[in-house]
Every structure is written in structure tokens, then in C-alpha cells.
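note to self: dont lose this again. the chain is below, predicted strucutre after it. 95 aa total, dont forget to put it in the shared folder this time
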Amino acid sequence: MFRVRNDVTLFVLKDQLNQINCPLNHKNTGRMESVEYQRPSINSVGRVQLSHMKLKNDDDARTMFSIFGPYNTKGMIELDTLLVKSFEYIQKSLI
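---
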């Protein structure tokens, strides 16, 4: 688990994720290309459902942080990220 500052621009969020990635995978010099979030919502019977949300701009990043708070104050936000480098490059760096 890693902590990132909240209430930041999408550019700053990607930069934070890059800073986390570099020490973990120093052979991979790729930069974050996209960030995706599983947004929670409550359906008509009271169950929490997750909707896929790709962060495209600063408003999306702010929305992600503002939505997350009411659902979970102690847990973590799960983000899916995409690096610019190819899968083959990443696979070689793990060996």
C-alpha cells in the first residue's frame, strides 16, 4: 500500500505514481499514461456497485477523491495505471 496526496491535479497524481514506481522497478523508465478508478455507488437495493472511471482531467481527479471519502474513511483507493513502456519491456525488467 502506498500513500498519495489527495486533492491534487491529475498531472501531480501521475507524478506521484511515477515516484512510487521508480524505486520499485528502476529498470522501467516509463511514465504514467493513464489512471483508472473503480467508483463506488449505491444501487436501488442498497448494495455498493463499482463503476469504471478513467481519469481524463483535473476535475476527474478531484471527483475521485471527493467520492471516496463518504464510502470509506479508513481504506484505500485502488487505482489501475498504464505505463508508456511495452509489456515486453516490463516483463524483461522483472527477470
